[in-house]
Amino acid sequence: xxxxxxxxxxxxxxxxxxxxxxxxxxxxxxxxxxxxxxxxxxxxxxxxxxxxxxxxxxxxxxxxxxxxxxxxxxxxxxxxxxxxxxxxxxxxxxxxxxxxxxx
Length: 103
Description:
The protein is an all-alpha fold. It has one domain: Butyryl-CoA Dehydrogenase, subunit A, domain 3. 78% of the residues lie in helices and 0% in strands. The chain contains 4 helices and no strands. The chain has helices spanning 2-24, 30-55, 66-76, 83-102. Helix 2 packs antiparallel against helix 4 (83-102). The longest helix is centred in the middle third of the chain and has 26 residues, at 30-55. It is elongated.
């Protein structure tokens, strides 16, 4: 479980770096930014849920930071465009790229 959490966090970090790199290159990065946000939000929620499982009953106890992490992770799926909206943006960008390649 811990290894899967680390894999997800590192993959999300690389996606964010790719999005930032695209911006640094002066390119439009809507596609990569949406992928990074959707994936990172999913990973944050999965990691928080796994952390609650690891802590067992104490995962919901306010004496431990895990319950706050769970609440905070949920907001990433909503804030600045829901994960579903990010997926729509990604799909739209893919279709746009395909149209441009056919020209």
